[in-house]
């Protein structure tokens, strides 16, 4: 009985910390709602998002169109749902690219140290000199605008972020006794990184991923706003804001709802990141 009781303690502690974190619960609820709308748009939307009906253009929210229609008579709710799918897709792939390259790069720099570490950090400094928007301009000048190029541009910007986070979090761990013991036992840098370093900085990377996910959504909206991201006729939150400028006084709902969607998405992901940090960081758990 004591073994069963002891095995349940970590689970109960995790559940209690989960229920106590309002930030985590609210952030998770908003994020799940966003993901749910994006997934639902794959199989159903109130109207075809690209279908135009000029007779119903610039209508406010009503029983037929819950969030109104745009200047071409397209349903705003349907466009927001598909826009959520596009934003999540771009952000997810951009963050995956950043983590997939940045984490190994930062781990390698921390493990090797010396000139290799200095070279990797100087390369990340160079990458920071080209923000996502400027990188997108360069890429689209060569390959043309589009969602794929937006993913590449945002992903390139995420690489040095994850490289620096991984390197900074790993440096101190390489001096720990258990890492020195593993080296004395003949373990290589790759094995030590996989078995000891990454598991101990996993909570840092998870929190940073949620932050970068939120920033990627904003970056995708910004790129679409200036015409470098998702291209028509596919809806995009940034493109919807751009189109709303002309009708800001006649149909303010065209700007309110996409802006509100971006705000809620970023707020939910940031609150989710804060909640995960509080739950996963052992130092904060000990203080509580």
**What is the terminal-to-terminal distance?**
28 Å
At the fold tier of CATH, the topology name of the domain at 90-288 is MetI-like fold
CATH class of the domain at 90-288: Mainly Alpha
Report the helical percentage: over 70%
Structural class: mainly alpha
Share of β-strand residues: under 5%
List the main descriptive attributes of the protein structure presented here.
about 290 residues, mainly alpha, MetI-like fold, 11 helices, about 75% helix, elongated
Walkthrough of the structure:
By secondary structure, the chain is an all-alpha fold. It has 11 helices and no strands. It has a domain of 199 residues: MetI-like (MetI-like fold, Orthogonal Bundle). It is 74% helix and 0% strand. The N terminus is likely disordered. α5 packs across α6.
């Amino acid at each position: 009985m004591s073994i069963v009781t002891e095995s349940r303690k970590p689970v109960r502690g995790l559940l209690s910390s989960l229920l106590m974190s309002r930030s985590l619960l609210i952030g998770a609820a908003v994020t799940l709602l966003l993901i749910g709308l994006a997934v639902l748009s794959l199989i159903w939307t109130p109207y075809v998002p690209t279908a135009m009906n000029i007779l119903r253009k610039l209508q406010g929210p009503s029983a037929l169109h819950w969030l109104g229609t745009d200047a071409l008579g397209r349903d705003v709710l349907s466009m927001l749902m598909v826009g959520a799918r596009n934003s999540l897709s771009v952000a997810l792939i951009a963050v995956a690219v950043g983590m997939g390259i940045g984490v190994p790069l930062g781990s390698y720099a921390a493990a090797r140290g010396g000139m290799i570490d200095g070279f990797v950090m100087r390369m990340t400094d160079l990458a920071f000199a080209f923000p996502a928007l400027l990188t997108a301009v360069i890429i689209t000048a060569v390959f043309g605008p589009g969602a794929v190029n937006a993913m590449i541009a945002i992903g390139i910007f995420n690489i040095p972020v994850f490289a620096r986070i991984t390197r900074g979090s790993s440096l101190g761990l390489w001096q720990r006794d258990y890492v020195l013991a593993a080296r004395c036992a003949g373990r290589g840098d790759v094995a030590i990184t996989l078995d000891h370093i990454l598991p101990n900085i996993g909570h840092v990377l998870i929190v940073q991923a949620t932050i970068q996910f939120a920033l990627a959504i904003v970056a995708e909206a910004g790129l679409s706003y200036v015409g470098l991201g998702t291209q028509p006729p596919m809806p995009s939150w940034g493109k919807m804001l751009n189109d709303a400028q002309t009708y800001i006084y006649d149909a303010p709902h065209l700007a309110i709802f996409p802006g509100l969607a971006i705000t809620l998405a970023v707020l939910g992901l940031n609150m989710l990141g804060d909640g995960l940090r509080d739950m996963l960081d052992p130092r904060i758990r000990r203080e509580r």
